[in-house]
Amino acid sequence: SDLVPPDHFASAIDFLDNGRKILDSWFEENEDVIVLQANIAIDRLSFSKLLWHISNNITLLVDPLEKRKSQAMAVKVPGNIPERTSVLEAMIKKMISTGSLPADIADRVDIIAASPGLPYPVSEDPTSVVEAEKRLMDSLGLQTAETDGFMARNFDRHISRFFSKRLVKTGLHPNWFTIMGMSIGLLGAWFISQPGYSQRLLGSLLFVFCIMVDGVDGEIARLTLKDSTFGHYFDIVTDNIVHAAIFVALPVSFYRETGNNIYLKSLWILLIGGAFAAFSAYYCIFRVEHRYNKKILTVFDKLASRDFAYLIALLALINKLQWFLWGATFGSYLFGIILWILYLRSSSLTRGYNKV
């Protein structure tokens, strides 16, 4: 009901009670209809695929690992097929009684893939509920696999899903978890800004923990269908606030420890480089006309990965965090330059293509 207005739903129970009157009166002419079994677990991404799939044939959403045509748990019937009302009537009766499609319909369907393991029918057996929860949690990792860094994909997401599975039952809005994560990151930045080995190490470990649980807010949002444009950008803004605090904390810590003005100068160089990198990312990637340049996005995702938190922790452990400070100071400029090179090459290729 979060994806489709409530007044667009009709119950199969009503259909059984009133027969064909429901089909004749409730659906508008040439209106697409989706038939879902009421007991299925399905993720938002999979359902959206079915909702927006364009086809002149009946469309069946299946688990890509099993592709069981007989399990018609999620089916879309386009409004322009011949005798749509008769097809719907036969299909709903068959699905209610056996959970499958009529033989004459099953032979003429388009199949699209859901997330592996979904949709999944939930029964009254408690083990079925546990299995459904597991499959929904597993689907979360698939939705972010392409953009996650190595550590995020292979380690962080396992930690965040451990917390998400338990915290989702608290009923708290996902944005509260965004604020909690930011608070942990800022606390880490405060410790890093203090002079001394132990303070910087503790701060770096808090920053790593912040990164580990960073996915909790998004995972809970997707599990509860509360993901939103505001929540997406709120998460990005809070992440970058934490990043800025960490980068500022490093030269502050070493200046307070040594009194050497070179660290104050590095702070200004780093701030200017960070502004240059941010402007480059906006202009070369996030403007509408260049948002879908896959090559630039791929490079950006790799360079902007939050895996650097582990490097900070490692260097803090061996008391060499100043290495990261100097790398970040000049690396921000290199980051921006790489984006501009890719952007200008992409623009020249696009202009050449348009001329042809």
Please give the alpha-carbon distance between the first and last residues. 47 Å
Mean pLDDT: 81
Major β-sheet profile = 4 strands, mixed
Supply Rg: 26 Å
Order of helices and strands: HHEEHEEHHEEHHHHHHHHHH
> Structural class given helices, strands, pairing?
alpha+beta
- Point out poorly predicted stretches: 288-292, 352-356
Shape: elongated
Please list the strands of the largest sheet in the order they lie side by side: 1-4-3-5
Helix content: 55-70%
Number of strands: 6
Number of helical segments with 4 or more residues: 15
Portion in beta strands? 5-15%
Write the layout of secondary structure elements.
Layout (H helix, E strand, L loop, with lengths): L11 H7 L1 H7 L6 E4 L3 E2 L2 H9 L5 E5 L11 E4 L6 H15 L4 H4 L2 E5 L6 E2 L4 H19 L5 H18 L6 H19 L4 H16 L3 H8 L5 H30 L3 H25 L7 H10 L4 H10 L3 H35 L1
Parallel strand pairs: 3-5
Antiparallel strand pairs: 1-4, 2-6, 3-4
Helix pairs in contact: 6-7, 7-10, 8-9, 8-10, 8-11, 9-14, 11-12, 11-15, 12-15, 13-15, 14-15
Walk me through what this model shows.
The chain is an alpha+beta fold and 356 residues long. The protein is built from 15 helices and 6 strands. It has helices spanning 12-18, 20-26, 44-52, 84-98, 103-106, 126-144, 150-167, 174-192, 197-212, 216-223, 229-258, 262-286, 294-303, 308-317, 321-355, and strands at residues 33-36, 40-41, 58-62, 74-77, 109-113, 120-121. The strands form 2 sheets. The chain has a 4-stranded mixed beta sheet with strand order 1-4-3-5, with helices on both faces. The protein has a two-stranded antiparallel ribbon with strand order 2-6. Helix 6 (126-144) runs antiparallel to helix 7 (150-167). The longest helix is centred in the last third of the chain and has 35 residues, at 321-355. It is elongated. The model is unreliable at 288-292 and 352-356 (pLDDT under 50).
